[in-house]
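Re: that backbone. Tokens:
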């Protein structure tokens, strides 16, 4: 709950800025980026001036300024917090190694002190960061994607973990994947491609945390021990992009459907053996690029029969990913347009209506 008379809570500030509450509290404890006034002297309550200071801290750290230096500049740039509220106490920022307390106000007529310039920025200039922390997110993405981008550029693993968990809990798997995770991953990829070798570490850390969040969602779904035929998930030979398949695995686990994840670049012989041994209801083959899309392999899998003599069956093959575009699906294969449709197609194989889960 937020009390407008005493400012807003740490959780509300975190949601507004797109960072985790743990990050906000850590900045307060480590760098003195805390509220100027605390209700009852204990609980953090953030005024508009405090929120503006935190926003400046986010902007500077997302631009590459070290957190301690960004904190000093953000504290010095904090607007006046106004009169102390009844029952509240004004905090002095805690001592920070290498930091100095702000000087008292100068006398009448004195020029205001210029905030310290961030590292690497000439006096009189400030680093500029777009709404998405310098990543090419575009103007129509969710605020959660901007927050995730900020945390990724800062290499703030705990913040990314918290933001991803909150997105999955609040929006569900499909929306969190399609509208928060994917736009941020694409933005990092575009930045990496246009910046030489820069941002590789950002892409790797973000991918790791997205994968962790998806796998956790799959594990915490309904129990998947089932005698029903499973869904085989595999990347075609030469394909290393597994995150979309991990999202599909999490979506199927959310419905209690059994899956077998075989991961990246599965050799054709291994895929054939996996299909024959597991007898799946469906096989999802991911191809990110046309260079990896193996249509002959897809046709082979779609024609693989298994089961007892006289009652043999074949799997439905989902041609998942943009690599399969440009050629009509072969018999026994379908090409879903996205995660939601893929989950719906597979769910119907098990007799579940496509819209039975909330996404």
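Recovered sequence:
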């Amino acid at each position: 709950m937020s009390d407008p008379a005493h400012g807003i809570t740490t959780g509300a500030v975190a949601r507004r800025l797109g960072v985790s509450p743990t990050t906000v509290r850590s900045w307060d404890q480590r760098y003195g980026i805390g509220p100027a006034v605390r209700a009852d002297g204990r609980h953090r309550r953030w005024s508009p001036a405090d929120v503006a200071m935190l926003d400046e801290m986010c902007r500077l750290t997302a631009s590459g300024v070290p957190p301690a230096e960004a904190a000093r500049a953000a504290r010095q740039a904090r607007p006046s917090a106004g009169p102390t509220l009844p029952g509240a106490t004004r905090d002095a920022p805690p001592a920070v190694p290498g930091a100095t307390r702000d000087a008292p106000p100068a006398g009448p007529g004195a020029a205001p002190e210029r905030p310290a310039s961030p590292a690497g920025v000439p006096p009189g200039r400030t680093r500029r960061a777009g709404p998405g922390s310098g990543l090419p997110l575009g103007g129509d993405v969710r605020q959660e994607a901007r927050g995730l981008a900020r945390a990724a550029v800062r290499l703030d693993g705990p913040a990314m973990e918290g933001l991803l968990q909150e997105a999955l809990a609040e929006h569900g798997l499909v929306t969190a994947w399609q509208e928060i995770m994917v736009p941020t991953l694409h933005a990092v990829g575009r930045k990496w491609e246009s910046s030489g070798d820069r941002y590789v570490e950002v892409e790797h850390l973000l991918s790791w945390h997205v994968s962790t969040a998806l796998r956790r969602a799959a594990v915490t779904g309904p129990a998947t021990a089932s005698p029903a035929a499973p869904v085989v998930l595999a990347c075609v030979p030469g394909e290393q992009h597994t995150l979309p398949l991990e999202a599909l695995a999490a979506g199927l686990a959310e419905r209690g459907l059994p899956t077998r994840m075989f991961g990246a670049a599965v050799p054709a012989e291994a895929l054939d053996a996996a299909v024959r041994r597991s007898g799946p209801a469906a096989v999802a083959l991911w191809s990110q690029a046309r260079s990896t899309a193996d249509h002959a392999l897809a046709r082979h899998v779609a024609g693989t029969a298994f089961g007892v003599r006289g009652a043999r069956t074949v799997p439905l093959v989902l041609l998942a990913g943009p690599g399969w575009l440009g050629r009509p699906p072969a018999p026994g294969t379908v090409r879903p347009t996205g995660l939601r449709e893929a989950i719906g197609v597979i769910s119907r194989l098990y007799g579940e209506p496509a819209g039975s889960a909330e996404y």
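The chain has three domains: 4-85, 143-219, 231-349. Residues 288 and 323 are 5 Å apart (CA to CA).
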